[in-house]
Every structure is written in structure tokens, then in C-alpha cells.
């Protein structure tokens, strides 16, 4: 099984000051998909420039032809399914059907309180996510939707003509808990993980591999429970949050070793961060480009 190599480009640069160049270069380098984070602000980037995901992806769609585009990840923290569906259908149309929606329950970062609300508990996030995903699935698949839920409502929401991709654009569902994995199994075309966050500071790469193996086994069990064929569900690792950190980007050999070990776990797509100087994602751009151009052939 071949392993797709993708990248994630954080939206911290003005479009005409390096933003556009990164997206067009991502296509030239042959990445499978280029994603961006869908946050209002994020961690150490909070006090600097940070642009919106959907406008950024729309601009990227206009300057690329083959590259798939997506979010890693969109969450209910500041999104509503009705308005999000309209934006996604528009983006899928503009891109000619090249959009993947990475979607997760969200966290307790800056997005959680930006609209003036108190941060939701983990259970509240899971409850909202469990309602958000099925409703968004309907909104992207049906011409008109009415719905009244505990958290979200839709009244004759029209989404004509629907997605270019049928029956809708693919969902890549980020999940490690049982409820999220059930959503991935039922509604996802892909499952996304960053590994076990508890291992990031003091864990070892070997412990991370074991944790990821455990997550993949839970996903397989969940698919069996809901009657889902695992062969139709891609498995995506967003790298940079395991104990390896940026180590795999130090050389082509280091990356191929890292990618190979994760391909053995059944992962079908590996996402690496576009280098950002003076950040947790700092890396040598020449090595990064060498990895993009040469690693996929070694991973087939």
C-alpha cells in the first residue's frame, strides 16, 4: 500500500508576502493534499498575523489545478453547520471538487472563548460534535434540510446544486475517543490522529507507535461494530505532535524511516508541516523539498 504525502500550510502570511507562493509550490512539489488550520488564532501565533481558512483555501484553489485542499481541522467551536455547508459547497465548486473537510470536536484554546462563551467541557464538545457531523452530512448531501436539535437548527436550508464531489465532499474525522471514532466510522472517508498528546513531552517514539497501534485497533473494532468496511476508510497522521517532533524532517532517510514505520500501522496519508522559522515547525526548507520530491517513490 502506497502512502500519500501531504502538507499543512499555516495561514500566517499575507497572500502576497509568501502565502500564495507556498500553495503553488506545494502543487509543484507533488503533495497529495495541502491543508490549513481552521482557527481564529492558534497558540504561539496568537499575537501575529493569522488569516481565515476558507478564504485562504479559496485563493489557493484559484492558483492551483491538481492539488487537493482541506482543513485540519474545522470544529464546532465557532462554526455552525448551515453556514459552513454553504461555504464548503462554494469552495468545492471553485476548486473543481478538490476539497476535503478535516473535522474534529475542537479544544479549549482561543477559539473556545472568542465568541464570548465559556469553554465547553470535553463532554459538551463531544455532544455538540455528535450533532454537528450528521447535520453537516445532510446539508452537504440534500437540496433542502430542516432540523431541530439540542444545539443546532436548520429551517429549509437550501444547498443547491450541492457538492461537485458526490454525494458530498469527503470528511476526514479527527478522533481518539469512542464517540468520535464512531462518527469517523459512520461518516468519515478518512480518520485523523496526531497520536497520544500525553506522550509529546516525555514519551518515546516507540511508545508513540504503540499508542497509535492501539488507536488503529480501536478504530477497526468500531468499524466492525457499525458494519463499516475498513478498506474504504483512509487513515491520516498529522505529524509534528508525537515525541519525534521535527526529527523526521532532519533528513530524507530519517523521514523515510519514520513514514515506513507508520505505514506498517496502516496509515495511508502522512501530513507534514510546511517549515516556519522560529516556531515548533522550524525545518530546513531544502530538506523539506527533498522529502516532498523523493520520499513518495521510496514509500510505494
Which short descriptors sum up this protein?
single chain, 300 residues, alpha/beta, eight-stranded parallel barrel, two-stranded antiparallel sheet, 17% strand, globular
Structure in words:
The chain has 300 residues and is α/β, with parallel strands linked by helices. The protein is 38% helix and 17% strand. Strands 1-2-3-4-7-8-9-10 form an eight-stranded parallel barrel, surrounded by six helices. Strands 5-6 form a two-stranded antiparallel ribbon.
Strand order of the largest sheet: 1-2-3-4-7-8-9-10
Assign the structural class, choosing from mainly alpha, mainly beta, alpha/beta, alpha+beta, or little secondary structure: alpha/beta
User: What is the oligomeric state here?
Assistant: single chain
Distance between the termini: 7 Å
Sketch the major β-sheet: 8 strands, parallel, barrel
Alpha carbon gyration radius: 18 Å
Mean pLDDT: 97
**Any low-confidence stretches, pLDDT <50, length ≥5?**
none
Give the H and E element order: EHEHEHEHEEEHEHEHEH
Strand share of the residues? 15-25%
Overall geometry comes to globular
Our count of helices gives 8
Helical content class: 25-40%
Number of strands: 10
